[in-house]
Specification:
The complex is a heterodimer of chains A (about 210) and B (about 1000). Chain A has about 210 residues and is mainly alpha-helical. Chain A is built from eleven helices and one strand. Chain A has a domain of about 60 residues. The C terminus of chain A is likely disordered. Among the domains of chain B are: about 90 residues, Ubiquitin-like (UB roll), CATH 3.10.20; about 260 residues, Rossmann fold (3-Layer(aba) Sandwich), CATH 3.40.50.740; about 190 residues, Dimethylsulfoxide Reductase, domain 2 (3-Layer(aba) Sandwich); about 130 residues, Barwin-like endoglucanases (Beta Barrel). Helices cover about 30% and strands about 15% of the residues of chain B. Chain B contains 33 helices and 38 strands. Chain B is globular. The chains are: A mainly alpha (about 210), B alpha/beta (about 1000). At the A-B interface, strand 1, helix 4, helix 5 and helix 9 of A face helix 2, helix 6, strand 15 and helix 27 of B.
């Protein structure tokens, strides 16, 4: 005759037995992972030396407050723009071809070095000196380099821009998705007036040199 | 329409084999176009404009444009893309992309993915706040500032779930989603079914379980979150980098968030979905479109009612009785005791002194093992399951007439039916997802609905015809309607001649059921009876849904038979959209019987008296099997009282509270010599046990369920068993081994393999064929071919013909005059059965903390009752105490007491042992009581935040026309046209 009951006596686990079980479990873990533990302890020791744990402990203990302070501070126009610019610069670095830039950088360095040596007082002024300098092969070579640079700057690069307003994209949706490569190809053709000006300059240069002679 | 349509897509000639929308066609052709408001389960909503393409030179929304012959479709032009970008930009003005710190960033955010696919790097329209507060309740939240106004949630609420709570107020300066007439979620009619959060493409409508839990960087204080979002926005150099970082974070989440498919363990609809877990924490339930029974649908229990698996009240150790108390024990000790007692009783008193009760909550495999334990190891057929309490009469009615005791088709058939007749079924609350299909079909597709019920429940309110027959009189009106149909010559003579036997005998039996007689017995008018007959006659197809209001009567099997007779006479079998649909109440009430937990049948409804069958099982099981049918649940209780049954082993069934006349049942438990109860919680039944075994619920094991559509579905293990609990199949095997059985199942698939090899009804069922969301509807042939529509070639009866079965009305139990109130009883939406699982959900309990008694305004006036009056109801068998709610859902002297409590309001303190004459199913619905007021005034038993106080606002869909009519709206295609014209 089993009468209804709701009384349940929980199983009492002998604390000593429980402790023994726990100890054995931990022991097993340590023994099974002793190599990893040895390495980890070495690292931990060094971190301890540098009070990293104290910092981490304090940081985690106050994590909510710290995070709030940090994000409130960072959520400032100049700071976020700095981060944004840094990210943009990082992205731009990816577009640079260092093999091609190296000679240009060396040339610019040399130019800077010449500028550093340049002394206003010791130089003759006037157009004639300037025209005379045009005879200098280094000057001619430098100008050729500059002309090439200017020519490159004349090529339209809108489609390669990383920072581009959505309105622009909406009004020129052909630049999106798969149409991009064909658009790029067309737009890389230099405008005609650049070619004309460049040709005219080349044509005039010999006359200039001859006149100076 | 010609068979093939010729269209041109982006300059290429194509042939289209079926009519479809442009969007669906392009998607099938792997041409991706954005489509943020479109969801395949919801259809075209037309709010987002992102799927704009050009058809025959005009900009159109691809989602809502049907393909026509000769169409020229352009989906890739720059002008098309421009229009799509304009649409996307507008949406991004409504949604902040802070993906990395968003809990919805799990790889499935549709906004995130669309921005990525369209390679959008910036937005022109700045995001601005809608200046409205975040809405939330215990289950989900709505952040208007993240809402893109796609209207999916509204479409789902209005036209899928059809609770009709949500709308978008397009008249607001900044439109947003509102509840009812712009109230809070908790004050609205929202039933928390979760459809809205399931279909939301982003984090606007999101389960609260996900908040601050899904992401690695989202668990920050609210005050810190805003500056974090600002920083993310301000430092981003274009969305590509943002997308990359958030994609990385989403990938990391996959390491710690498990997504496991399971099948719901509440009602018999068989909803399947993924459960998202982080360790033991349930983040959310995510229904999948491919789920065969429910698709994207859930109810509050399936979507949010899983707290019980981690409840502190779970049993985690075996319990052994010592005097009038239990003590926790180890498994070995509990199994030792069971072994000793079972062996001793079998030896001294014979095998039939032991009995076994299986559970409709457990898996098919567990039901199979329980009956195998009883039959093969112990040697008795004393095995039954809880379908005895509910569904056996429906099964009997179908066995008699059509040969198979299962639904004629699937839920899809109910949805496409021309006429649905619901009898004695509060299906909106008892089978919520199935009911949504009826509500939707009626609202959108012109389906007609007749409801016959005592109580004006939700489907009754919506019905085209609602009739209130006198309690227990359904057989009479069904037979009268059938006779009237025949008298009018509306019966399907061809169908009867070809497919039905016993026609003449049946027709003669109907003589008694004239309209006049039926009107007198049922209190229905002749006009109502004629209208029902006429509606059946006019409908192309008719489906009848029925449940406990039919079965739980003295003549429950006969009434179920009358339903099937009516369907046969009108030819409503053997075709889609028609047939008989007894709605199964538990997740596996169908499977528990399918797999042989019945006293007279092996798995697949094979009789134990059939020698060939018995020999087949005996050979496979290597044991002698009894040819004597055993005791059913009802008989077991009597046998205990008579001293013939000494040992009872129950799993997953709180019989001490859910059986009828529980005082009698509990007294029987007290008389048992040895009583083993296996459950997830310490139930009322456990209180009487000698040994209680801790079982694992469905989320902690693998197996299969069979839903009301006869559909096999697999559930996968989501969590490890809690504490020392074990899956039921392992426990049964442990006991069987103790008793000498050589069982070595290592996985439920092996059990299924064995069951299928012995059972022609599901010979082709295997775990391989049930991978993921794959399913099979029995009968399943050995080659795996299943049977979504049950009767196609004929019926599994002699000559392949159905059989009309004459029935006589059994008068309901009559009570003495003092018992003047008829006590109707049934379910509530929010709770399941006695509530062992759902009351563990804080959210559900806060909305519906306890059961209550519905009384009519007339009765309230007569007895001076108000909301909160505490009364005692007393029947000849016992009494309950409960608080009143006055409502016109009930009339006159009929009251309604939900079954959802195991406390002092438990209905079965009132019910009797009177039962269906053919199946012994208790006549729970035949009960009268007298009332006395214990406390005239008290608090309303339902808090104001219960959905029943809400004020639904029905409309079709999202009313997108109102959006288009706004002054600030221009169709993106028009903008592009104008721009191009200016250039």
């Amino acid at each position: 005759m089993a009468k209804a009951t709701k009384v349940i006596h929980k199983l009492e686990i002998d604390p000593a037995v429980q402790r023994e079980n726990d100890r054995r479990e931990v022991e097993d873990l340590l023994i099974n992972n002793k190599e990893v533990l040895r390495d980890a302890l070495e690292v931990l020791d060094r971190l301890k030396e540098h009070e990293v744990f104290e910092m981490m402990n304090a940081g985690l203990g106050q994590s909510d407050k710290l995070l709030h302070r940090i994000v409130t501070a960072v959520d400032d126009h100049n700071t976020t723009r700095s981060i944004k610019n840094a990210l943009l610069l990082f992205e731009l670095l990816g577009t640079l071809n260092m093999n091609e830039i190296e000679p240009l950088v060396l040339k610019v360095n040399k130019g800077v070095s010449k500028v550093a040596d340049y002394e206003h007082a010791n130089q003759r002024g006037g157009y004639t000196a300037l025209i005379g300098a045009l005879k200098d092969p280094e000057v001619i070579e430098g100008m050729n380099v500059l002309v090439a640079l200017v020519k490159g700057m004349g090529v339209e690069q809108d489609s390669n821009e990383l920072i581009e307003p959505q309105l622009e994209r909406k009004e020129h949706p052909e630049k999106e998705m798969k149409t991009r490569s064909s658009v790029q190809k067309n737009k890389q053709t230099p405008p005609r007036w650049f070619g004309f000006a460049f040709g005219a300059a080349c044509f005039l240069l010999p006359f200039l040199f001859r006149k100076i002679k | 329409m010609s068979e093939h349509l010729n269209v041109t897509v982006n300059g290429r000639q194509e042939k289209v084999s079926s009519q479809d929308s442009v969007l669906n066609y392009l998607t099938k052709k792997d041409i991706e176009i954005p489509s943020l408001c479109y969801h395949p389960s919801l259809g075209a909503i037309e709010t987002c404009d992102s799927c704009i393409v050009k058809v025959n030179g005009e900009f159109v929304r691809a989602c809502s444009t049907p393909i026509k012959d000769g169409d020229v479709i352009e989906s890739a032009g720059s002008d098309v893309h421009e229009a799509q970008l304009i649409a996307m930009d507008r949406m991004l003005g409504n949604h902040e992309l802070y993906c990395t710190v968003c809990d919805f960033n799990n790889g499935n955010c549709e906004i995130h993915n669309t921005v990525k696919e369209m390679r959008i790097s910036h937005q022109e329209t700045p995001h601005t706040s809608k200046e409205a507060p975040v809405q939330r309740n215990a289950f989900y939240r709505y952040d208007p500032d993240q809402c893109i106004l796609c209207g999916r949630c509204v479409e789902a609420c209005q036209d899928v779930q059809v609770t009709e709570t949500l709308s978008i107020d397009w008249n607001l300066k900044r439109p947003r989603v509102i509840w009812d007439k712009n109230t809070s979620i908790d004050d609205s009619s929202c039933v928390s079914c979760g459809h809205c959060s399931t279909v939301c493409p982003c984090n606007a409508m999101m389960e609260v379980g996900m908040e601050k839990e899904a992401g690695f960087l989202t668990k920050v204080n609210d005050e810190t979150m805003k500056p974090m979002v600002n920083i993310t926005k301000n430092v981003e150099t274009g969305y590509e980098s943002l997308m990359t970082i958030s994609d990385l974070e989403a990938t990391m989440r996959e390491e710690r968030i498990e997504k496991t498919k399971t099948v719901c363990t509440y009602c018999g609809v068989g909803c399947a979905f993924d459960v998202w877990t982080k360790d033991r924490q349930i983040l959310k339930v995510e229904p999948q479109q491919e789920a065969p029974a429910n698709g994207i649908s859930t109810c509050v229990k399936g979507k949010f009612g899983w707290d019980y698996v981690n409840s502190d009240e779970r049993l985690t150790k075996p319990l052994i009785r010592e005097g009038n108390a239990f003590r926790e024990a180890e498994w070995e000790e509990a199994l030792d005791l069971i072994e000793k007692k079972f062996k001793k009783t079998a030896k001294q008193k014979g095998s039939d002194a032991l009995a076994f009760i299986s559970s409709s909550k457990c898996t098919n495999e567990e039901s199979y093992l329980m009956q195998k334990l009883a039959r093969s190891v112990i040697g008795t057929n004393n095995i039954d399951n809880c379908s005895r309490y509910c569904q056996s009469p429906a099964t009997m009615g179908l066995w008699r007439t059509v040969g198979y005791g299962g639904d004629s088709g699937g839920i899809g058939d109910i949805a496409q039916s021309g006429l649905v007749i619901s009898i004695g079924s509060n299906t909106v609350e008892s089978h919520p997802v199935l009911a949504t299909r009826v509500k939707r079909a009626q609202k959108l597709n012109g389906q007609k609905v007749i409801v016959a019920d005592l109580r004006k429940h939700e489907l009754a309110e919506r019905a085209d015809l609602f009739v209130k027959p006198a309690p227990g009189s359904d057989l009479v009106w069904l037979s009268a309607v059938t006779k009237y149909i025949i008298d009018q010559g509306w019966h399907d003579t061809e169908f009867l001649a070809q497919h039905v036997n016993n026609v003449d005998e049946y027709l003669n039996s109907l003589d008694l059921y004239t309209l006049a007689y039926a009107a007198e017995v049922t209190n229905m008018s002749k006009e109502e009876l004629i209208r029902i007959a006429t509606m059946i006659h006019e409908a192309k197809t008719t489906s009848v849904l029925w449940a406990m209001g039919v079965t739980q009567h003295g003549g429950g099997s006969d009434t179920s038979t009358a339903i099937s007779n009516m369907l046969l006479v009108t030819g409503n079998y053997m075709k889609p959209g028609a047939g008989a649909y007894p709605l199964r109440g538990h997740n596996n009430v169908q499977g528990a019987s399918d797999f042989g937990s019945m006293p007279d049948r092996f798995p697949g409804y094979q009789f134990v008296t059939d020698e060939d069958v018995r020999n087949r099982f005996a050979k496979k099981w290597n044991s002698e099997l009894s040819a004597e049918p055993g005791l059913n649940n009802h008989e077991m209780v009597d046998a205990i009282h008579e001293g013939n049954l000494e040992v009872l082993y129950i799993k997953g069934e709180d019989m001490g509270i859910v059986d009828a006349n529980i005082n009698y049942v509990q007294e029987a438990f007290e008389k048992l010599k040895f009583f083993v109860v296996q459950d997830v919680f310490f139930t009322k039944t456990c209180e009487y046990a000698d040994v209680v075994l801790p079982a694992s619920p469905s989320l902690e094991k693998e197996g299969t369920f069979v839903n009301t559509e006869r559909r096999f579905q697999r559930l996968y293990q989501v969590l490890e068993p809690l504490g020392d609990s074990r899956p039921d199949w392992r426990i049964i095997q442990d006991i069987a081994k103790r008793l000498g059985a050589d069982w070595n199942y290592t996985h439920p698939s092996e059990i299924m393999e064995e069951a299928a090899s012995l059972t022609p009804l599901f010979a082709g069922v295997s775990y391989d064929r049930l991978e993921g969301y794959d399913s099979l509807q029995w009968p399943v042939a050995a080659d795996g071919k299943d049977t979504p529509l049950l009767f196609t070639d004929g019926f599994p009866l002699p000559e392949g013909k159905a059989r009309l079965w004459p029935v006589e009305w059994t008068r309901p139990l009559e009570f003495e005059e003092e018992y003047d109130l008829h006590v109707n009883n049934g379910r509530l939406l929010e709770h399941f059965h006695e509530g062992n699982m759902t009351y563990k959900s804080e959210g559900i309990s806060s909305k519906t903390p306890k059961a209550f008694l519905e009384v009519s305004p007339e009765l309230a006036k007569e007895r001076d009752l108000t909301d909160g009056t505490k009364v005692r109801l007393t029947s000849p068998y016992g009494s309950v105490k409960v608080d009143c709610v006055v409502t016109d859902r009930v009339v006159g002297k009929q009251v309604y007491l939900p079954m959802n409590t195991s406390g002092e309001g438990a209905i079965n303190y009132l019910t009797s042992s009177h039962s269906d004459k053919d199946t012994d199913t208790p006549a729970y619905k035949e009960i009268s009581a007298k009332m006395e007021v214990l406390k005239p005034r008290g608090e309303h038993p339902l808090p104001r935040k219960n959905h029943r106080f809400g004020n639904p606002q029905p409309q079709i869909g999202v009313n997108v026309e109102q959006k288009w009519a706004r002054a600030d709206y221009t169709f993106p295609g028009d903008i592009v046209k104008e721009r191009r014209a200016k250039r």
